[in-house]
């Protein structure tokens, strides 16, 4: 049952990623634009979620009967923890223009590490270092502009 619901969640999440990616501007000189890779990722999420949900459809009646006709015995906490990465992707999409890419990445990594039981100081150190490395790799070496955010725009470092 958990895999079925998780598959549905990824199917819906993939659809949301594709829908948001279609709102990105197009490049008149290119056959593809900034929406290509998010659309591919969303398509992969949707296809994977659909395959996962469809592979577990046969188990639904047995899972419902095992729960006594209801879902009261279901592990909702485990499902919510499984959905946290999807929620963090949505958080990044919605908040990166305001908070900036590096802060969104650091907060996401911090939350994921804390949920998995890492110590606070270790989670904080790893989240900051890894977010800074990813930001530098994408913005300086790959020349991909990442959102700097309007919240901390006055604190921009001169590299």
Give your account of this protein's structure.
With 159 residues, the protein is mainly α. The protein has 2 domains: 74 residues; 85 residues, no CATH class. 68% of the residues lie in helices and 0% in strands. It has 6 helices and no strands. α1 runs parallel beside α4, α4 packs antiparallel against α5 and α5 runs antiparallel to α6. It is flat, with a radius of gyration of 19 Å. It starts with a helix and ends in an 18-residue tail after the last helix. The model has no long low-confidence stretch (mean pLDDT 82).
Rg to the nearest angstrom? 19 Å
Principal-axis shape equals flat
Beta-strand content bin: under 5%
Structure classification:
mainly alpha
Mean pLDDT equals 82
**Could you give the order of the helices and strands?**
HHHHHH
> Sheet with the most strands?
none
Number of strands: 0
Distance between the termini: 50 Å
What is the total domain count?
Answer: 2
Helix amount: 55-70%
Which spans have pLDDT < 50 for at least 5 consecutive residues? Answer: none
Q: Count every helix, treating DSSP H or I runs of 4 or more residues as helices.
A: 6
